[in-house]
Amino acid sequence: ARRRHTMATPYLIRPFEHGADIVVHSATKFLGGHGNSIGGLIVDGGSFQWAGDARYPMMSQPRPEYSGMVLAETFGNFGFAIACRVLGLRDLGPALSPFNAFLILNGIETLPLRMQRHSDNALTVATHLSKHEAVSWVSYPGLETDRYHALAKRYTPKGAGAVFTFGLKGGYEAGVKLVSNLQLFSHLANIGDTRSLIIHPASTTHRQLTDAQKTAAGAGPEVVRLSIGLEDPADLIDDLDAALEG
Q1: Which domain holds residue 45?
Q2: DSSP letters of 112-124?
Q3: Residue 126 to residues 1, 14, 80, 135, 156: CA-CA distances in angstroms?
Q4: CATH code: domain of residue 48
Q5: I need a surface site. Which of 16, 93, 112, 144 has the fewest CB within 10 A?
Q6: What is the distance, to the nearest Å, from the Cα of residue 4 to the centroid of all Cα atoms in its chain?
Q7: Is the same domain home to 208 and 155?
Q8: pTM higher than 0.85, yes or no?
Q9: Distances from the Cα of 207 to the Cαs of 197, 211, 221, in angstroms?
């Protein structure tokens, strides 16, 4: 099993303990955590039997560019990590600059502190919005009323992360107005920053889709996405309340 694991990070959930073989992170988000670097990580759990598996000839068959070496036989279950380096890195060249690597490593050092604050703040803000008269729904598994709450308690008992969506009763125009009225939140398509971020997908990232396509993609006209940062949650709530009422 493969898992894209950007949102929860290893602090909130450890995918290898739940059956994943390969984990992919966007380090641009929470691992780096400060919105200053672009990068990614591929982590090989060493648990998949590549040898002899015809579905993955790159791993299980001789590689002509390495004198017939079979990566799965030479490097065992960690052959995928080696393949990413000797094939992906050599042929395509995806590599961090030393300075970006330095920034991301610095960010990882504070990951547990930041992710707990992200999650705690997000739960506080989501709880408030779930009771706001201008909000029709909130989708956040940290809420006891959420349909995924039981799964969140099982897989991410420390918290449900920083990112969630909610719907505005006023629809499209209310979403555009909210983003325009906010002072503390930054209007960005990114997530996982120390600062709180907001986006109204229907008028930005999903703008070119039809209304039906937006709704099918979970980006209906009323949908707003938040990435909650490390600020004082009372300040975030005050900013949202003022923008919703403005």
Answers
A1: 2-109
A2: HHHHHHHHHHHHH
A3: 31, 24, 39, 11, 17
A4: 3.40.640.10
A5: 93
A6: 8
A7: yes
A8: yes
A9: 19, 9, 10
